[in-house]
């Protein structure tokens, strides 16, 4: 694919992606409340917290640092950052609204005007530069009050609070935002319930029931958001957002093939089936039966889910996953948050994430074959250690190579017949890593002077990849 020229659709939505809790900072400004990201400590130990039981959602500054509190200070520097996005030629900027800026505790009856006004300013600045916002309504920042006092998404009451939040932002920004998504990486709750579902599993026996009841509540909430969006902003589009990783069988052993299929259906398709097709998939019935799961479904829920399905699928793609039934500790892909076993055909990033551009083409074909709705790659990127040279430059050719190969894979998928709306590279500006809370795990085209200990000037500078991506956008993907 190295020398091939690709034809991306006219009006293709090139841009970059971020999340409020990973860039904004200002965690106590503007009457903002405390959210989940605010209580997650920095460092590689964060991943253990996210996947193990017992987290208490409390801040302990004697023991930990909390990089999300300042992040990269987008809260005060958004004009400078948006100007840099415009210089790269962004058509769209994927961002999220911090729920706790709008409803600090989550259960108030009236929204916080300071929070609403902040996003007015951000959207106005984007529009000034002719950049369309793509807004994720909930991106790993549930109010801590809803976690502690209601049990997160395990509580039906949270659906009401979420619907109130949705109506507040749709009404406020109906003339400024036309691309929306409901829940970020909704299926990630299967592996990281703290961020996705708003609770920490305390007892293994409660895991399955609590998790899937919470999912039902999110599906209802998502459908209510789709309904509201279609009614309040008829010209807008609203999608779901999933974390997608093709699952390969380690070999041709039929038992491993079936195991890989089962893992893929549960993780990749369960949430998307409900939000796109509007119904629970047939395969989940056996899973519920084998794990003693009995959902409490209220009258009208299934009809609501069926009637109000999403317009498109947004998804993140970072890696594929390889599976076999029997695996040893040596087999495991250690850095892969989705587990699985090492794929002997793939190299890995500095953080152990396996690099598989062809997997993105596979993912796009699988999703489009299954759902036949427009697709939007809203996260993809390489977390790497960047070195600042003596002259201030960052020569991130490894990032250019990674992105080149993945964008080429998208070009191939478009030739395969996939309807692809756009591409927003993850962490277009360096930000706090969601899984590890590190700044040293850098994704951006724009370098931010801040280290893992919080030191630095926060000054912005352009990496080599900045100019490369600028040309990609300017040529609509013809020059990679």
UniProtKB/TrEMBL annotation:
<dbReference type="InterPro" id="IPR033132">
    <property type="entry name" value="GH_1_N_CS"/>
</dbReference>
<dbReference type="InterPro" id="IPR001360">
    <property type="entry name" value="Glyco_hydro_1"/>
</dbReference>
<protein>
    <submittedName>
        <fullName>Glycoside hydrolase family 1 protein</fullName>
    </submittedName>
</protein>
<comment type="similarity">
    <text>Belongs to the glycosyl hydrolase 1 family.</text>
</comment>
<dbReference type="Pfam" id="PF00232">
    <property type="entry name" value="Glyco_hydro_1"/>
</dbReference>
<keyword id="KW-0378">Hydrolase</keyword>
<dbReference type="GO" id="GO:0016787">
    <property type="term" value="F:hydrolase activity"/>
</dbReference>
<dbReference type="InterPro" id="IPR017853">
    <property type="entry name" value="GH"/>
</dbReference>
<dbReference type="InterPro" id="IPR018120">
    <property type="entry name" value="Glyco_hydro_1_AS"/>
</dbReference>
<feature type="active site" description="Nucleophile">
    <location>
        <position position="379"/>
    </location>
</feature>
<keyword id="KW-0326">Glycosidase</keyword>
């Amino acid at each position: 694919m190295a020398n091939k020229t690709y034809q991306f659709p006219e009006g293709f939505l090139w841009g970059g992606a971020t999340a409020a809790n990973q860039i904004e900072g200002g965690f106590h400004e503007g009457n903002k409340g405390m959210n989940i990201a605010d209580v997650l400590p920095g460092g590689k130990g964060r991943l253990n917290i996210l996947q193990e039981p017992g987290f208490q959602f409390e801040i302990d500054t004697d023991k930990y640092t909390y990089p999300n509190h300042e992040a990269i200070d987008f809260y005060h520097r958004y004009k400078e950052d948006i100007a840099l996005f415009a210089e790269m030629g962004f058509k769209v900027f994927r961002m999220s609204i911090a729920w706790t800026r709008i409803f600090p505790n989550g259960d108030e009856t009236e929204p916080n005007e300071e929070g609403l006004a902040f996003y007015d300013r951000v959207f106005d600045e984007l529009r000034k530069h002719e950049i369309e916002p793509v807004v994720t309504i909930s991106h790993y920042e549930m109010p801590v009050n809803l976690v502690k006092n209601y049990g997160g998404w395990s509580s039906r009451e949270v659906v009401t609070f979420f619907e109130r939040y949705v109506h507040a932002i749709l009404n406020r920004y109906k003339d400024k935002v036309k691309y929306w998504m409901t829940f970020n990486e909704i299926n990630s709750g299967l592996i990281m319930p703290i961020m996705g579902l708003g609770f920490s599993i305390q007892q293994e026996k409660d895991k399955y029931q609590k998790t899937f009841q919470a999912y039902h509540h999110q599906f209802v909430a998502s459908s209510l958001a789709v309904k509201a969006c279609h009614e309040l902003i008829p010209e807008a589009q609203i999608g779901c957002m999933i974390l997608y990783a093709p699952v390969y069988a380690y070999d041709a052993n039929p038992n491993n093939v079936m195991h890989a299929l089962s893992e893929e259906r549960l993780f990749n398709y369960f949430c998307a089936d409900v939000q796109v097709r509007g119904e629970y998939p047939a395969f989940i019935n056996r899973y519920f039966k084998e794990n003693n799961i009995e959902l409490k479904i209220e009258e009208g829920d299934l009809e609501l889910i069926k009637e109000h399905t999403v317009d498109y699928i947004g998804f993140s793609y970072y890696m594929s996953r390889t599976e076999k039934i029997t695996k040893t500790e040596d087999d495991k892909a250690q850095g892969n948050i989705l587990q699985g076993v090492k794929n002997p055909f793939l190299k890995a990033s500095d953080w152990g994430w396996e690099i598989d551009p062809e997997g993105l083409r596979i993912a796009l074909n699988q999703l489009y074959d299954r759902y036949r709705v427009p697709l939007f790659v809203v996260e993809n990127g390489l977390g790497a250690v960047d070195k600042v040279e003596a002259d201030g430059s960052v020569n991130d050719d490894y990032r250019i190579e990674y992105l080149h190969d993945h964008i080429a894979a998208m070009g191939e998928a478009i030739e395969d017949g996939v309807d692809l709306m756009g591409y927003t590279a993850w962490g277009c500006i360096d930000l706090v890593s969601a899984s590890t809370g590190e700044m040293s795990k850098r994704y951006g085209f724009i370098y931010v002077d801040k280290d893992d200990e919080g030191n630095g000037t926060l000054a912005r500078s352009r990496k080599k990849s900045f100019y490369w991506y600028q040309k990609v956008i300017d040529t609509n993907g013809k020059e990679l």
